Amino acid sequence: MNQIVLAVVSFAVLGGVLGLLLAIASKIFHVKTDERVPAIIEALPGANCGGCGYAGCAALAEAIVKGEAKVTACSAGGAEAAAKIGEIMGETPGKMNRVRAQVMCSGTTECAKHKYVYEGVHDCIAASKLDGGDKTCPNGCLGLGTCVTICPFGAISVRDGVAYVDYHKCTGCGRCATACPKHIIKMIPFDAKHWVGCMSVDNGKTTRGYCDVGCISCKRCEKACAFGAITVNDFVASIQYDKCTGCDACAEACPRKIIWTDERQVKAVTIEKEHLTEDARGTGE
């Protein structure tokens, strides 16, 4: 009986000693956390999307406190998060140039030519490993939804074999652009009125064999633009948004009708500008 009591007492004493040592160690090796870090984490959207270039919101918060990242680094949080973080850091955030994702492909199931019938894993990356995917165009959207799966904001859907972006939900984090194996999702200014719905890098004759609406690099858009905002290089037409005035000349000149103007986007931008104006009036700015 005495041996049992002795064993229990011994374990109790040992536990107490180890607990004391752990308490002392925690004091000695304690790493002080800047109180601004949890405050910034609270101000961030918590999506951990990685659009800022850091592993997650906590990593970004630490980088901001260390001065390694700007208070405007979170595109998902937008101006609202930047304002809160700026207040925490005692800084005035600069203007954020909001961007959105845009799928540069018009090759729907009906328009795009196919090499074979794909019946594998419903994933663009997996499909692209099989001779580049089922679409003949090497730069066509495969429409299997890798971008849909990876978007943490539910901003992308697939219709008729092509991915589409919901501008109201897109935060411009860029995860879809990084994930796309065809590299045809580009980040463009949120208020951009036009975009070229094709990224074929082949000549017009070859592209016609790929798709009924592919860009044939005729350069009519380039010639029609009075501002030098659209150019055709290496058979690919692209818009320089810092020069584009949204005049519609390129869209009207395109014989393939793939320089798109989405009225939903124009409306979304108009509504956002109206809200910004109302907010400015409300604050007396």
Briefly summarize what is shown.
Helices cover 38% and strands 11% of the residues.
H/E element sequence: HHHHEHHEEHEEHHEEHEH
Distance between the termini: 83 Å
How large is the count of helical segments?
11
Radius of gyration: 27 Å
Structural class by SSE content:
alpha+beta
Overall body shape: elongated
- DSSP strand count: 8
| Largest sheet properties | 2 strands, antiparallel
Give the % helix: 25-40%
Share in β-strands: 5-15%
Return residue spans where pLDDT drops below 50 for at least 5 consecutive residues: 264-273, 279-285
The average pLDDT is 87
Taking strands numbered 1, 2, ... along the chain, how are they ordered across the largest sheet?
1-4
Q: Could you walk me through the main structural features you see in this protein, from its secondary elements to its overall organization?
A:
The protein has 285 residues and is α+β, with helices and mostly antiparallel strands. 38% of the residues lie in helices and 11% in strands. The protein has eleven helices and eight strands. The strands form four sheets. Strands 1-4 form a two-stranded antiparallel ribbon. Strands 2-3 form a two-stranded antiparallel ribbon. Helix 2 packs across helix 3 and helix 2 runs antiparallel to helix 4 (78-89). The longest helix is centred in the first third of the chain and has 27 residues, at 2-28. The radius of gyration is 27 Å and the shape is elongated. It starts with a helix and ends with a helix. The relative contact order is 0.10.
